[in-house]
């Protein structure tokens, strides 16, 4: 089966998931992810917000607009990335994901990573960082610094764009991290 068919099968499995009863009852729809199949860069955020829940696409609200702007500013075309979240359903009132919800969605994110085979995974915020990089990492200490895993995947921790909406002082750090990401993509031969 082709990767696109396997991803579509996974999308259907996620859309039928009811493991997290509260999320299944309150969601409008699941948010699988969005982007180019075969993209060498995967962004992993926390969970869908209200706009994402309505549209079924990650990062379409204000945080997504900031992310798109930062990517354009750094010269990273959106077509070269895939964007997903740790959770595939919106937590009510945009609360933090609960540990059991993260555990329930873990298999879905792992399957996306296996099927997409990204060379670089950008963790957006602490939930993506904690989910994908086991260890005592603090986003404030590791953002903008590539971490190479044993399987040669490069993890690139970044502040979640929503953080800048709540704390304007982080906006410059986020823009700078996207510039660092662009430089890394060039060094790795991904961005020309």
Q: What is this entry, summarized?
A:
The chain has helices at 3-15, 21-26, 50-55, 62-74, 99-116, 125-132, 139-142, 161-166, 171-187; strands at 34-35, 41-45, 81-85, 120-124, 147-148, 154-158. The chain has 192 residues and is of the alpha/beta class.
Could you explain the architecture of this structure?
With 192 residues, this protein is an alpha/beta fold. 47% of the residues lie in helices and 12% in strands. It has one domain (3-187): Uracil-DNA glycosylase-like domain (Uracil-DNA Glycosylase, subunit E, 3-Layer(aba) Sandwich). The chain has a six-stranded mixed β-sheet with strand order 1-3-2-4-6-5, sandwiched between helices. A hairpin with a 5-residue loop joins strand 5 (147-148) and strand 6 (154-158). Helix 1 (3-15) packs antiparallel against helix 5 and helix 4 packs across helix 9. The model has no long low-confidence stretch (mean pLDDT 95).
Helical segment count: 9
Oligomerization state of this entry?
single chain
Q: What is the CATH H-level superfamily? A: Uracil-DNA glycosylase-like domain
Number of strands: 6
Large-scale geometry: globular
Q: What CATH architecture would you give?
A: 3-Layer(aba) Sandwich
The main sheet orders its strands as: 1-3-2-4-6-5
CATH hierarchy class name: Alpha Beta
The CATH topology is: Uracil-DNA Glycosylase, subunit E
> Structural class, from secondary structure content?
alpha/beta
Q: How many domains?
A: 1
Q: Portion of residues in helices? A: 40-55%
- Residue fraction in strands: 5-15%
Q: Roughly what is the average pLDDT, rounded to an integer?
A: 95
Q: Supply Rg.
A: 16 Å
Low-confidence spans = none
End-to-end separation in angstroms reads: 31 Å
Series of H and E elements:
HHEEHHEHEHHEEHH
For the largest beta-sheet, the strand count, sense and barrel status come to:
6 strands, mixed
